[in-house]
Write a structure and sequence with these properties.
Rossmann fold; three-stranded parallel sheet; about 290 residues; alpha/beta; binds glutamic acid; 10 helices; 2 domains
C-alpha cells in the first residue's frame, strides 16, 4: 500500500444512506483501490441532536454490503471534541473568531444579499461590535455562537502563502471549474465555527480530521464545493497540509432532483430489502 495516499468517506449519521452516498463512497473507494491508497470512513457526529447510533450502524452495514472495507477503528468526531477545541483556540489566538449573538430570525431579516450557494450568507452584524459590547453581553450570559471572520482569515492566509490562495481541483465544481482554482470564500459569509450550544461546527472539525488522518485526496460531491473555499482558508491559517480535491457530479432521481435525506429519497437499505444487488447499484450509478 502506498501509505502516502489516503482518501475518505465521511457520512453524518443523521439518516440512512441513499444512492448519492453510495456514489460518493464508491468513487472514493474505487480511487483508493486504483491508487493503492488508504481508505478511511469517518463518522461526523458532532451534532448530537441529529446523530443517532442506529444510523451509524446502518450506514456501515450499507457500505459493507456494497463491498467496501475500511481502516478500523473508525474515527467518530464526538470522541475527539478536545482536538477541535484546540483548533478553535488557535483561531481565537489569531484574532479570526468573534462572538455572534444573532438569532436565526435576526439573520434572515438583516440579510441583504440573495441566497448564496450555502443558504443566506451571514450579513456580518456582530463582526463590528466593539470589544466592550461583546464583553458586556458575554458577561450578561447572552447566548452566542462563534463565527470565523472570513475576510481576515483570507487576508492572513494570503499573507502566509505569499500570494493568492488556490486549491487543486481534479474533478470539477458545479460550473465545470477544474484545475488550480482561486479561493474566494467571502461571498459565503462568516461561517459558524462553534454553535451556541458549544458544539464545534463541521468546517473546523473536517479540516482538522482530514489533517489528523493524513487525507491527501478529498473526494466528495459538488454540493460541498463551496465549503472547500472556507476549508482552504482554515487549513492555511492552522498550518495544516494541503489536500487535493475531487468534487464529483451529484446523483439525481427520476425527476431530475438531487437526492437528499430530507427529501425522503429511497434508501440503500430499502433497495437492499427489495432484492436490488450491489452490482445493480453500480450499474445504476454508471460505475460498471
Ligand atoms: N459529513 C458531511 C456530509 O455528510 C461530508 C463531509 C465531507 O465530505 O467533507 O455531508
Amino acid at each position: 500500500m502506498n501509505a502516502q495516499l489516503a482518501t475518505r468517506f465521511a457520512p453524518s449519521p443523521n439518516g440512512h444512506l441513499h444512492l448519492g452516498h453510495a456514489f460518493s463512497a464508491l468513487t472514493a473507494w474505487t480511487w483508493a483501490r486504483a491508487n493503492d491508497a488508504r481508505f478511511v470512513v469517518r463518522i461526523e457526529d458532532t451534532d448530537r441532536t441529529r446523530s443517532r447510533p442506529e444510523f451509524e450502524a446502518s450506514q456501515l452495514e450499507d457500505l459493507a454490503w456494497l463491498g467496501m472495507t475500511w481502516e478500523t477503528p473508525v474515527r467518530r468526531q464526538s470522541e475527539h471534541l478536545g482536538d477541535y477545541q484546540q483548533g478553535l483556540e488557535r483561531l481565537q489566538g489569531l484574532g479570526l473568531v468573534y462572538p455572534c449573538f444573532c438569532s436565526r430570525k435576526d439573520i434572515a431579516q438583516a440579510a441583504i444579499a440573495p441566497h448564496g450557494p450555502d443558504g443566506t450568507p451571514y450579513p456580518g452584524t456582530c463582526r463590528t461590535l466593539s470589544a466592550d459590547v461583546r464583553a458586556t453581553r458575554i458577561a450578561a450570559g447572552d447566548a452566542h455562537a462563534l463565527r470565523l471572520d472570513l475576510a481576515r482569515g483570507l487576508d492572513l492566509a494570503q499573507r502566509l502563502k505569499g500570494n493568492a490562495l488556490t486549491f487543486a481541483e481534479e474533478g470539477s465544481g458545479p460550473e465545470g471549474e477544474t484545475g488550480r482554482l482561486p479561493v474566494n470564500p467571502v461571498p459565503f459569509g462568516d461561517t459558524v465555527i462553534a454553535r451556541k450550544d458549544g458544539v464545534i461546527a463541521y468546517q473546523l472539525a473536517v479540516v482538522m480530521d482530514d489533517a489528523l488522518q493524513g487525507i491527501t485526496h478529498i473526494i466528495r460531491g459538488q454540493d460541498l464545493f463551496f465549503a472547500t473555499h472556507i476549508q482552504r482558508v482554515l487549513q492555511v491559517v492552522l498550518d495544516l497540509p494541503e489536500p487535493t480535491y475531487h468534487h464529483h457530479r451529484l446523483i439525481a432521481d427520476d425527476t431530475g432532483e438531487r437526492l437528499a435525506k430530507r427529501r425522503n429519497s429511497q434508501t440503500l437499505r430499502d433497495m437492499r430489502m427489495q432484492g436490488i444487488t450491489p452490482t445493480d447499484i453500480r450499474q445504476m450509478l454508471d460505475l460498471e
